[in-house]
Amino acid sequence: MATDGNTTGTVYAGRPLVVSREEWQSARDALMVKEKAHTRAKDALSAERRRLPMVRIDTAYVFDGPEGEVSLLDLFEGRRQLIVQHFMFHPGWENGCPSCTHGVDNIGTIASLHGTDTTFALVGRAPLEKLLAYQERRGWDFPWYSSGRSTFNRDFGVTVEEDMEIPGMSVFLRDDDGNVYQTYATGSRGSEPLMPVFGFLDMTPYGRQQDWEDSPAGWPQKPTYG
Fold it and tell me: Is 159 exposed, middle or buried (0-12, 13-18, 19+ CB in 10 A)?
């Protein structure tokens, strides 16, 4: 144990400073001001996202699903909105991407999405039999489709040069005439809202414990993709 050189607290290796309840409350109140500003900024960003223009999808994409061949419109399952997670699964792989797998493991239930006229689906480029076998091993029940017989992955930027797979999300809206439009797309850390476990960890003193985080010396950390 070592002291921090004053009478306000004690420093333990790899742990936050120990202070009085009054000092903690003062620091917590100061942080809450920033948290509220962050919430308002996030709300403003979401409002701007809702005002993005959209682009009509005219390509007749074909997907393989558990019930046979389906269209992009079929992926909506009759609902107004569709969120697609582009799951990294190259046709030559026997297992899905570990990072995508971690993300789907942490999604939890999507039942409340249906109550807001929204469908969530996974789309991967591997043959359907590989996707469904992996789905069974992981114990998932999310809808999953193979895009391997179309240019869907390339057109939406998740299969790039030399057949490299990258993660991403696409959001679609359909109208009453059956037209489909893309309204939003994101990737990398933009997909974090699908992984509530990160929200839990961000509230803890050690955070996500990944090596990119700005944490004090001595905090536990590991390679992000280790």
Answer: buried
Residues 6 and 37 in one domain: yes
Contacts for 70 with CB less than 8 Å, ≥ 6 apart: 62, 63, 64, 145
Same domain, 44 and 80: no
Does 162 lie in the same domain as 86? Answer: yes
Structural domain tally of the chain? Answer: 2
- Kindly report the backbone phi and psi dihedral angles of residue 71, in degrees, each rounded to the nearest multiple of 5, phi listed first: -105, 175
Q: Is the pLDDT of residue 5 over 50?
A: no
Same domain, 90 and 174: yes
99: containing domain: 55-194
Per-residue pLDDT tens over the stretch 44-99: 988 889 999 999 999 999 999 999 999 999 999 999 999 999 999 999 998 988 88
